[in-house]
Amino acid sequence: MVIAVIGGSACSREEGEMAEAVGREIARRDAVLICGGLTGVMEAACRGARAEGGLTIGILPGADGREANPYVDIPVVSGVGYARNLAVVKSARAVIAVGGSYGTLSEIAYALADGIPVIGINTWSLRRDGKEVNEIIQADSAEDAVGKAISLKRR
User: Per mean pLDDT, which range of 53-57, 117-121, 125-129, 146-150 is the poorest?
Assistant: First the structure.
């Protein structure tokens, strides 16, 4: 199973620690981690997965595989900039968002539009017509997030 981890290329220490724990848990459950391959949440998640012997894939925005963080096993160069966000989430059966900025929000939207479950840890919340929309499933730990991702995965 492939699980995407999304979040900002710059993150707080707490977000980095959570992303690393998510990466570790993904590897412990024999899933593959896919992300945008750069810094911040992406690097922390890959570091965690690699520490547990997991496989990591980074879909890079540029055309140079050397821009990948050092914990990416399989760098995929796209040359399409932020449009690579679509490839990250569409390649996954579930998405875990840790923190994040507007790029993360775009990935959340792409996933939800295609019926891919999104689990969030301290990330965006959604409102429609002034009312909270609960399409982002909240989690409070790495174990909780990965467990929900596996149980709710798109078939």
Answer: 125-129
Give the DSSP per-residue string, 77-143: E--SGGGHHHHHHHT-SEEEEES--HHHHHHHHHHHHTT--EEEES---EEETTEEE--EEE-SSHH
For the chain, which domains are there?
Answer: 2-94+101-152 (3.40.50.450)
Q: What is the pTM of this model?
A: 0.97
**Mean pLDDT to the nearest integer, 107-135:** 95
How far is the C-alpha of 37 from the C-alpha of 135, rounded, in Å?
26
115 vs 141: CA distance, rounded Å: 23
Structure-block tokens of residue 115: 């019926």
Predicted local distance difference test score (pLDDT) of residue 154? 77
